[in-house]
Amino acid sequence: MRIPEDVRKDIPLTGEVIYFDNTATSLTPKPVIEAMDEYYLRYRANVHRGVHRLSQMATHKYEESRKVVAEFINARFEEVVFTKNTSESLNLVALGLEHIFKPGDKIVTTPYEHHSDLLPWQRLAKKLGLRLEFIEGDNEGNLDLSDAERKIRGAKLVAVQHVSNALGVIHEVEELGKMAKEEGAIFVVDAAQSAGHMEVDVKRLHADFLGLSGHKGPMGPTGIGVLYINEEFFEVFEPPLIGGGTIEDVGLEGYKLTEPPERFEAGTPNIGGAIGLAAGIRYIERIGIDKIERQERKLVKRITEGLDELGIPWYGPRNLKKHAGVVSFNVPGLHPHDVAAILDENNIMVRSGHHCALPVMKKLGINGTVRASFHVYNSLEEVETFLGVLEGLVKSLRS
Ligand SMILES: Cc1ncc(COP(=O)(O)O)c(C=O)c1O
């Protein structure tokens, strides 16, 4: 497979615009759309509910999709729960573990988290009188690992993102997971920006819980996400939502919950979404995660060099080995939204603003950034076009 040419052929939009907003959501390859079409056109039925053949087929495909996800993150089939997105997955973790905390217990996270991996812990801490502590780090997003070791000591839960959507920094999740496990703390990983862009192996990361979104790196549809629950927590984790599909037996006096994963999936799930997500995972696995990573690294190297040449400050680690395919920057003298609007006039889609990471913006003393973020279908030619537009902009500001 030629990268990115052959991938671009599967994604018609790549021929129409320069899409550099992959951190927000990815474009969708045709095989993903075809897999969902097939469900809606040929075997549209509910799962786990019917003996008729359409329902049997839908159930088979839905559960086969769970298997694809499990293999993708190196989990067991039963440990994969379908959700809406990473935000829902992380909220569910906080709600389902609420009963294990006592006042004064410590939760540790970082100052670089997306709001979805911060607010659930802030709310839990406030409600239960917990201590919420943050691992120190610098303005590039590099964590101080000795401070991490100190803070994680005695913690009950540690929650960290794998990759920052605001700074592009890849955090040392494996090391942090090891520290958490040595302390007997629960380790929660936000893999929203890493899944589909680099290897995510729940065992290697020491994750007890992990959330990811289907619509980002895995190139699936919106509305489908994953919550990985380490089987050791099946009895500890209380399903925040219960009802249809989650039970073994019910009487008017009470109920008995069924086994995972159904125990954690109340109501009719996003069947077409799960099937689309599995098609997305199969698609990126055909390309190869290593090739995806390599292409994004190439683009990051060129874009950061180009920004340096233009005197445009960019954020995140200067050490590009720690920099994922997300580059935040600011054109001095221009608001990030104005830069994004000018880029849009030139057919280039980027994100601007605080990127749901306000504490990061506050730490850097800025109100936002412009963010260019990549996937495997982005090309060096697109980066050159993008840099050309910025060059014109910088020149016009100087004249
Ligand atoms: C690091 C990180 N965590 C969580 C999320 C939330 O993802 P979703 O909006 O799919 O729930 C995002 C979204 O951009 C993210 O970048």
TrEMBL record:
Belongs to the class-V pyridoxal-phosphate-dependent aminotransferase family. Csd subfamily. It comes from Thermococcus cleftensis (strain DSM 27260 / KACC 17922 / CL1). Gene3D superfamilies: Aspartate Aminotransferase, domain 1 (3.90.1150.10), Type I PLP-dependent aspartate aminotransferase-like (Major domain) (3.40.640.10). The keyword Iron does not apply. Pfam families: Aminotran_5. Its EC number is 2.8.1.7. PANTHER family: CYSTEINE DESULFURASE, CYSTEINE DESULFURASE 1, CHLOROPLASTIC. InterPro entries: Aminotrans_V_dom, Cys_dSase_SufS, Cysteine_dSase, PyrdxlP-dep_Trfase, PyrdxlP-dep_Trfase_major, PyrdxlP-dep_Trfase_small. Its cofactor is pyridoxal 5'-phosphate. It catalyses: (sulfur carrier)-H + L-cysteine = (sulfur carrier)-SH + L-alanine. One of its GO terms (molecular function) is cysteine desulfurase activity. It is an enzyme of class 2 (transferase). GO terms for biological process: cysteine metabolic process. Residues 18-386 form the Aminotransferase class V domain. This is cysteine desulfurase. Keywords: Pyridoxal phosphate, Transferase.
